[in-house]
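Lay summary

Proteins are chains of building blocks that fold into shapes. Our project writes down both the chain and a compact code for its shape. Here are two examples, one after the other.
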Amino acid sequence: MNSKTSTKRRHFLKLGASVPVLGLMGACGSDNTTPPAIAGTPSPTNPTESPGNPVAPNPVEPPVVIPASHPPRGVHASLFSDASTSRGLCWFTDGLDSPAAEIQWGPVPVGMSMEAARNAVQNPLPNVTTASTSQTTGLDNQTHKVVVNGIDPDQPFRYRVGSEMGGWSDVFIIAPTPKANEAWTMVHFGDHGIGELPQRLTAELMKPRHKHDLLLLAGDLSYANGEQPIWDVWFDQNQALLATTTTMAVPGNHENKDSVAANVPLLPFKDYAFNNRFNQPGDVSFFSFDYNRVHFFGFTAGAFLEDGKILKEMAALEADLAMAALRRALGQIDFIVIFQHYTIWTDQEGRAPGNPTLIAVEDQILLRYGVDMVLCGHDHVYQRSKPMMLGLANPLGYVQVMTGTGGQSIREFEPEISAWSEKHFVGLGFSKYTISPGKIVSQYFGTPPMSSDDRSRVQHENIESDFELVDEFEIRPRPLRIAKSFVKPPRTEQELAKAHDWQRIYAHTLARNCAHEQTMPKSTLHEYQRIYPNLLG
């Protein structure tokens, strides 16, 4: 719906709603000279009630409800400056003429029921923060963003977004961030979509048994592929989850397609669709944050390669991990976790690490600072590695957890599984982590396909059935002596630029990205070479 159509629709609704009001005004101002009925005298409009002849009350006309002109939709929450006291919110409205938007927010007071907390009329929200507004990428709609600081860390956070003129969302409630000495949970998966399998996965996550504090989305979220209305479908399908769960997301290769014209990325518009639709700190598409005693760094890992930021990302990764390794040696954090879209190592059928140069650079950085886990997606299978480095099992290395089983499709493995692999699974599912002082317990819950010939359906497709526990392992903090060995000064962007052949890295990564795009013609790489000769050499 374009803005003109949207405006006409709201004008029509307002006119239609005004008709009963005009009728009432005419009745009040008429010249009707019919004498009023005398009290106690029966008349059609003033009957006399007797014990044996009770009179039914006159019907009460329901109030006229004017539909909201700009109802908020696709509400989702993220972390911002502090995991306990701040949140970033983002939502969308139709048309380009939305009234000024805001968030009303506050704690759920002790003793207030959840039902009462969701009633903003009887229990008004005490705080108001104005949102920023911009046009939604590729649509005649608007994106609204706001950051809330000063949240009570001890009480649930309740909020609604919108405006008095445009309409309000429901009141959503987010549980408080657990304390550092308490156990907490997070979920991770990638490669979601809007079909039946993705919705089945979301329904499973909404079950009380899988309640979680943090959600990490490892790229390829909506599969809009440039069709921007698909993003709206995805956000609407998942609003119940995303508006009540603190969520952090990184982009994948299908987010990269949101800025592709004729299969050739356009540098000036790179990554705007993803960045427009998420409200996250830093560069939006690569950032770091702490959640209690775990440090996270999320980035594109080459998904947005053509925006020219890969060297900047790697330098940011280097600087961030150097500080995290120091903090771990000082006892301030226990674990360092990377999450990204592209897998580093894989055994999915028909795939292999197709860009060895970028893998060598990233692996070297991860090993230099002793990263504990790498959480990723991209390949539509589940595969968990042993602690490894450079594709070989090594107790000093990281554990890669590849969970690309969000539901877009279900794929298979190569006949031979690599020696670094500890567990692999074909189906639909997600990884769930329980973090307590000194330990991360990882569990994978999934459901296999109906058969190897029918991977469009899963065995636990009925919402009443539960996904099965497929894999479980745990990670302990590194001993202090080993943690100290990973404390090293960061190399600068200039030093990294000189240390590696970035022309080859760009070329190999672009070749991988193209090779992993089933819908792209084989000639696409030649188009890259024509448009970006400086990247490909």
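And here is the second example, written the same way.
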Amino acid sequence: MHCPNDRKMLLNILVACFTMVALVAPQATAQHCGCATGLCCSQYGYCGTSAAYCGPGCQAGPCSATAAPPAPNKVVVGNIVTAAFFNRIIGQAGSSCAGKRFYSRQAFLKALGSFPRFGRVGSVVNSKREIAAFFAHVAHETGHFCYIEEIYKGIYCDRSTTKNYPCKPGKKYFGRGPLQITWNYNYGQAGKSLGFDGLNSPETVSNNPVIAFKTALWFWRINNLQSKLLAQGFGATIRAINGGECSGANPGAARARVTYYTNYCRQFGVAPGRNLYC
């Protein structure tokens, strides 16, 4: 892929290129559920031990709270993610960017149909903050929707997870899509949840823009980023997506994410809230 010549755009792309998100999801096993002793079955049918699994909506196991999650509010996400908002982001990508011909607002909205709680929990302010946070990370990871795939196309096979998510010969599980989903176990879990063969055909994420957006929204959901944002602030979402940028390890990258977030919050007419950094 060719990076655009614009200096500002180049800086954003380089940040995205060299601070590639590992997207290490919580070690969870998709069982739907049938979890082993000591593991909780989350509201989405995954096994694990964190609050995302044992908290609200937990179906079985040592649940810490069994109350159903609150009903979605009446926010229409498409009325916030307008064509003008989306186009302002993708319009900053260079004309040679493959992502400019791949990503679209229509694909996002179609993917959104599978995630009815995204951007629809709590107050309207909460909704706008969540949408701003999601697109802040997307803009950072893809360079304003320039990149579909990461530049360094490593294999990303985590041998400790191959029993449940075997790495297939000749397949690479490098970053793809709006949040650059990475690693065999993420492809395996996302594929099972979304209805595609993530282990045998990880390239589906690069070829189908709706699936690409679905993997990003899936990652957002399975890592409980909605709750992290609303309870702890934007900084908690940076730590969940790329903890290597936190605690001063990569202040430029963290600052870029915060800049996107505060900018989008301003466009939506809401304050960004507290704890912006990690």
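What can we say about the second shape? The first strand starts at residue 29 and ends at 30.
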